[in-house]
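User: I'm preparing a small set of examples for a lab meeting where we compare how different chains pack in three dimensions. I only have the primary sequence for this one, and I'd like the structure in token form so I can line it up with the others. Please keep the answer compact; I'll paste it straight into my notes.
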Amino acid sequence: MELVVHKVSGEATDRKVKLDDSIFGIEPNDHAIYLDAKHYMASQRQGTHDSKERSDVIGSTRKIKRQKGTGTARAGSIKNPMFRGGGRIFGPHPRDYSFKLNKKVKRLARKSALSYKAQENNILVVEDFKLENPKTKDFNKILKGFDMNNKKTLIVIGNSDENIYLSARNLQKVKVMRAEGINTYEILNANNIVFVESSLKTIVEVFANK
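Assistant: Understood. Below is the structure token output for the 210-residue chain.
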């Protein structure tokens, strides 16, 4: 698959780049995508939720009424979960939600996600560019040139560029990531993926023939 390389202004150049079919042209594996997206979202969870069970609630342990003959359910103490202010039954406690996922499954999932984006023609290649100063206004102007200022956009860059990061961080629908750090969730969550030309080489090095 070949794509036209665009200038930062939005104009198309006379150059084209060929996307590696082993990355952008495979038969997508939906189950691998599901596992990798689930793995990413699980890793984002803090797992700091906690609740008080009856042993954690402050209160008397005196038996509040006799066992039988009251016509109501038996109750051992005021901390009974059935009473207001009592402990919680099977409440959440701090835990780690992350789980292990094989590298090959992750790689397959990311290739599958990129292949879906290629099939939907939602991938754009832009010439390498730099911003002299970190200005959101200048970065937003670039997005407007591609009619992406109101769409979820993932910008994939080859090398870390602080000015690009700082310029995009205030834009709610824009995410800037280095090529080696892209993941299945961010790929699928974006409406469009913009690859800076130099990042494609890194993509190939990370994913191709593995």
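A couple of notes for your slides: The chain has two domains: 2-39+101-207, 46-96. The radius of gyration is 26 Å.

User: Perfect, thanks.
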